[in-house]
């Protein structure tokens, strides 16, 4: 890591004078500005973007009901680059101005750290020692304009919104469960996201809770400190700021404020694609074979993975019948030892599920047991929103060289993939067909634009045999027949659009083999190893188009809920270079309800500046693989 500490040239009003009440900190490019006001014996902040008020007259506190006084400040500018183990970018710039504010809460010293980036701001408190009779709470108000609209994740349901700030006074806010990351359309052609990062470094804090304070007409985030430790450090509370909603998905502030990588050796951490057995159970192939929990089924998955350069095969629930500390009684439906040996011989790594409800015997024995089975990772189900348990599970899985994929209402540990890059993905969304439901094209776009801001998602996109799923030919398919509304090209595009370190594709090997020319897009995609990522088009409930680069190759995926055409301008290609482009498209007769598996694949050449008309049916998709033409 090359670190360059630049000379301090902050616009900082009266920063070193304890008697003054107003402080000001700008972003490196001057577009964002935070002011702190201590004139009323509390601490309030204002956030301005492009000289316009974004959040005004809002309190920030760590020790409530105590008067606070600014004693001193210290400022610095940092401009450095760092390389993640895996991610949407191969190198990330960390450029910010920071103000360290020394505070006195009626004799209790504390510090507030404020960072301004060009595309967001972050706040963190640190208190070395708190009296026993004081119960700290990390509270931030958000004085948003009444014209602002909010969107929020809703667990495994469709994210809700828009909810206008101006309407909060007349609705029952007790029934409104606001979760991070909140997305705000602020009515000024800007988009915000309110969330936190680096929870892994803040013992004693749980996930933030958002409420609306009708008395002050402000949105409030609150988190009580639950630890018995005398000192505390809070997570970073973040406000992302973008001109386009798609920019929130590639904003690097949440990663930049997270603690650096704690693992000395990361050579064993390999992002990639995985086949998965759970949604294929009960499917009968043309040759009469029916998939289930048995060796022959798993051999088929492993063979296909080996033949198509798919790194992993994930075995889900029901491979064991009884749990004891560090030991599981295997199901008599299969011989797991033979499956493990078969995968080793084929060069395919295995991932294995664990359901905590079937026996919570402590992870100190669990992870070494999985390692003894030669597993490369664990899919952990039903951990609940227990922050300490999740933090320990991430650390202990790393100690056993295991990737970890959290499911079933996990904690959104934003930024943790920098600190513990073995935390490869999580189901902080409604994974496709989960709870035997199927989500709509609109729901997918909402989750891709909202839930995905907090980090990698395991959404299980990539269904190719849509007709079979809709006909109810899978044991774990949707309960309602014909409820899966999508197209096969949209399914392929979704695997690129939703960022993850582990892309779990849920269909049978035969479904992918039958459409091998379309499967090529997924097969060639280098999951988690991107050099560059950008969202080209995005509109809530309507469409999203994402481009990712690996080396000189570009992969582009688009989906459209309503149907339409997006202009993809290839201005990111190199000058004086011809490129081969493969299009994977909805066909003229494609229909997401009646003919979802119709598609076409064609090859052409393009160059920098060309415009591709990406045409999609309602609920459909469009994919492109672009690579330099070989001379």
TrEMBL record:
This protein's UniProt keywords: Calcium, Glycosidase, Hydrolase
Residue intervals of the Glycosyl-hydrolase 97 C-terminal oligomerisation domain: 529-626
Superkingdom as given in the UniProt entry: Bacteria
Record's keyword annotation contains Hydrolase: yes
InterPro entries xrefs: Aldolase_TIM, EF_Hand_1_Ca_BS, GH, GH-type_carb-bd, GH97_C, GH97_catalytic, GH97_N, Glyco_hydro_b
GO molecular function: hydrolase activity
Cofactors named for this entry: Ca(2+)
PROSITE patterns in the record: EF_HAND_1
UniProt keyword annotation of Hydrolase present: yes
Glycosyl-hydrolase 97 N-terminal domain residues: 25-260
Coiled coil regions in record: none
Domain Glycosyl-hydrolase 97 catalytic: 282-427
PANTHER family in UniProt: GLUCAN 1,4-ALPHA-GLUCOSIDASE SUSB-RELATED
Subunit structure: Monomer.
Protein known as: Glycoside hydrolase family 97 catalytic domain-containing protein
Source organism (scientific name): Mariniflexile gromovii
Organism lineage: Bacteria, Pseudomonadati, Bacteroidota, Flavobacteriia, Flavobacteriales
């Amino acid at each position: 890591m090359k670190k360059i500490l630049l000379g301090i040239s902050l616009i900082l009003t009266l920063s070193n004078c304890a008697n003054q009440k107003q402080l000001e900190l700008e972003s490196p490019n001057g577009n964002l500005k935070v002011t702190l006001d201590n004139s009323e014996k509390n601490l309030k902040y204002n956030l301005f973007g492009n000289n316009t008020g974004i959040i005004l007259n809002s309190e920030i506190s760590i020790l409530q009901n105590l008067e606070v006084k600014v004693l001193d400040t210290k400022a610095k500018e940092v401009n450095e680059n760092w390389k993640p183990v895996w991610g949407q970018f191969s190198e990330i710039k960390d450029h910010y101005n920071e103000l360290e504010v020394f505070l006195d809460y009626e004799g209790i010293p504390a510090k507030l750290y404020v960072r301004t980036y060009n595309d967001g701001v972050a706040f963190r408190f640190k208190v070395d020692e708190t009296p026993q009779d004081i119960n700290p709470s990390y509270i931030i108000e958000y004085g948003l304009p009444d014209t602002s609209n909010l969107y929020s994740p809703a667990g495994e349901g469709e994210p809700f919104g828009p909810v206008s700030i101006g309407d909060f006074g007349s609705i029952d806010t007790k029934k409104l469960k606001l979760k991070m990351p909140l997305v705000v359309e602020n009515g000024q052609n800007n988009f915000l996201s309110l969330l936190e990062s680096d929870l892994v470094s803040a013992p004693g804090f749980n996930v933030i809770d958002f409420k609306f304070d009708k008395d002050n007409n402000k949105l409030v985030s609150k988190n009580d400190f639950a630890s018995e430790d005398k000192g505390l450090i809070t997570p970073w509370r973040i406000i992302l700021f973008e001109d386009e909603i798609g920019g929130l998905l590639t904003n690097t502030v949440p990663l930049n404020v997270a603690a650096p990588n704690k693992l000395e050796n990361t050579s064993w951490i390999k992002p990639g694609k995985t086949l998965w057995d759970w949604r294929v159970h009960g499917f009968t192939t043309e040759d009469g074979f029916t998939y289930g929990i048995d060796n022959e089924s798993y051999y088929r998955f492993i063979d296909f993975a080996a033949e198509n350069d798919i790194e992993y095969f994930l075995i889900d629930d029901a491979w064991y019948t009884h749990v004891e500390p560090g030991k599981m009684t295997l199901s008599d439906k299969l011989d797991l030892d033979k499956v493990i040996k078969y995968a080793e011989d084929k060069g395919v790594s295995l991932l294995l599920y664990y359901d905590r409800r079937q026996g919570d015997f402590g992870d100190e024995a669990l992870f070494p047991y999985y390692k003894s089975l030669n597993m490369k990772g664990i899919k952990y189900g039903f951990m609940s929103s227990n922050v300490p348990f999740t933090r320990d599970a991430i650390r202990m899985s790393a100690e056993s060289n295991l990737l970890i994929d959290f499911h079933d209402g996990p904690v959104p540990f934003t930024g943790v993939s920098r600190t513990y890059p073995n935390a490869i993905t999580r189901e902080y969304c409604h994974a496709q067909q989960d709870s035997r439901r199927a989500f709509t094209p609109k729901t997918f776009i909402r989750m891709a634009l909202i839930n995905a801001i907090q980090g990698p998602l395991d959404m299980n996109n990539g269904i190719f045999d849509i007709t079979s799923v809709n006909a109810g030919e899978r044991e774990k398919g949707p309960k309602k027949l014909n409820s899966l509304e999508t197209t096969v090209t949209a399914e392929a595009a979704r695997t690129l659009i939703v960022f993850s370190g582990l892309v779990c594709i849920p269909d049978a090997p035969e479904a992918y083999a039958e459409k091998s020319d379309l499967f090529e897009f997924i097969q060639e995609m280098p999951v988690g190893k991107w050099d560059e990522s950008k969202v080209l088009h995005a509109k809530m409930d309507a469409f999203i188009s994402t481009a990712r680069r690996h080396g000189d190759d570009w992969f582009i995926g688009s989906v459209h809920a309503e149907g339409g055409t997006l202009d993809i301008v290839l201005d990111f290609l190199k000058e004086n270079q011809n490129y081969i482009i493969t299009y994977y498209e909805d066909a003229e007769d494609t229909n997401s309800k009646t003919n979802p598996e119709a598609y076409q694949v064609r090859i052409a050449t393009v160059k920098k500046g060309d415009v591709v008309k990406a045409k999609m049916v309602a609920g459909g998709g469009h994919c492109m693989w672009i690579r330099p033409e070989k001379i």
